[in-house]
Amino acid sequence: DRPISPARELARQLDQAFVEVADEVSPAVVVIDVAQRDEDTEETPAARHPWFDLLPEEWRGPFRRDRAESDDKPPGPPEFNGQGSGMIIDPEGRILTNHHVVEDAERIRVRLKDGRSFEAEVRGLDATSDLAVLQLKGAPKDLPVVRFGDSDAVRIGQFAIAIGAPFRLDYTITYGHVSAKGRTSVVPSMLGGGMMEQDFLQTDANINPGNSGGPLVNIDGEVIGVISMIRGLNSGIGFAIPANLAREIGARLVADGKFVRSWLGLSISSLRDEEEVQALVPGLADGVVVIDVRPDGPAREARPALEARDVIIAVDGKTVTNPADFKSQVSRKPPGSVVLLKVQRQAESLQVEVVAAEKPARIPLIGRTRPSPAERESYFLGMTLKVLSSAEAKKAQVAGGIVVTQLEADSVAAARGVLVGDVITEINHRPVTSNRQVSEAIQNANLARGVVLNFTRDGKSDYRILKDAEE
């Protein structure tokens, strides 16, 4: 026999390591089948997920139902027409998966690798993090469970192994690497990314529809993330919810059925996006800039008071570098707890105390909730806009423009400090005094490059640059 070279022997050891991980983890991974009635909707829950539009069109078919002649059929029993993955997290038969996998399910069936199948019910849901916990009905006592690793200790470049049921191909194993940590601008603000309060692990392990809710594990077989979404066909770009966050939220869902978040009621931005503020705090590279304090938020009672252009650099002694980091830390504080913010106000360092409050399930709109049908209005980046009449422009002391009549609280515009009543005179340095000009400005806007708004507020001119936050 030919002798085995050291290089081949090393490759065999690596090969064996992957085999061992698959053998160890797969029994604790489950395939989740979801049933819904035909008349409920034209799309599966996954297709209604806010991140669904990030999938290329050719990937969306498996998540859409064939509605041909459905109107002529009487309502039928629930059909198992959606599928995802999950993992067993405790011996009592609780399953961690994605919220979008089981959203609005009438029946849920969970299949194990050994062939056993169980009905399951939802124990808790959290749409914001896209996590859910299921409870197996009649769970046996011999269930295998996954082991969680420390996602904070994950290093870029280490192996990442995905296990799940892509395209109904149960227990498919793919591997790659951890491509990045702390990804925050995964979903554009205009698609709901402004509401996200977490970051993601990025991996180039091959992930496809059906992998959602399954584990991303390291070479030791420990779960480092919950697979959540992909970006583009064959792009090698997938994202997973970090295990530490998933484990914390999962525990709350088991205990309470929901995850209660706190908030401070601040409009914020990354210091890296605020050149004017950077000049006020030389030496600071990262931080969170206060753009505005919401009138209905708990930060209105901060002591000492927070001001626009304050830079928050730590929450309860833990450094924050960007808005997603700040939101993640604040949201996990118990409502009613005192949050200590380390703030830099030009050359002055401050310690600011704010009592966190429970974040409303839906933050109310700022401004009118029912615009008059007689008014011609446009919608742009979370703002409802109306062209000023000649009389209104004269009263506002401008030649013409558009007024912000309504503002979505979690929009990119609100995050950058735009207020209801602001009169926008230019978009990207072009006048907007008519509906035609407004339509053209909206069509030509590119949030990735930045949208410049020139406006007046209380007779004073100002501007804002709207763009997706950098990662």
Describe the structure.
By secondary structure, this protein is α+β, with helices and mostly antiparallel strands. It has 3 domains: 17-259, Thrombin, subunit H (Beta Barrel), CATH 2.40.10; 269-358, PDZ domain (Pdz3 Domain, Roll), CATH 2.30.42; 366-466, Roll (Pdz3 Domain). It has 10 helices and 29 strands. The protein has helices at 6-25, 45-48, 57-60, 99-102, 243-256, 275-280, 323-331, 390-395, 412-415, 435-444, and strands at 29-36, 79-90, 94-97, 107-111, 117-126, 131-136, 147-148, 159-164, 172-183, 200-203, 215-217, 222-230, 238-242, 262-263, 266-270, 288-293, 311-315, 318-319, 338-345, 348-355, 357-358, 366-367, 377-380, 383-387, 402-407, 423-427, 430-431, 451-457, 460-466. Strands 22, 23, 24, 25, 26, 27, 28 and 29 form an 8-stranded antiparallel sheet that branches. It has a 6-stranded antiparallel barrel with strand order 1-2-3-6-5-4. Strands 8-9-10-13-12-11 form a 6-stranded antiparallel β-barrel. The chain is elongated. The N and C termini lie far apart (54 Å). Mean pLDDT is 84; it is low at 65-71 and 365-376.
Quick structural overview:
With 471 residues, the protein is α+β, with helices and mostly antiparallel strands.
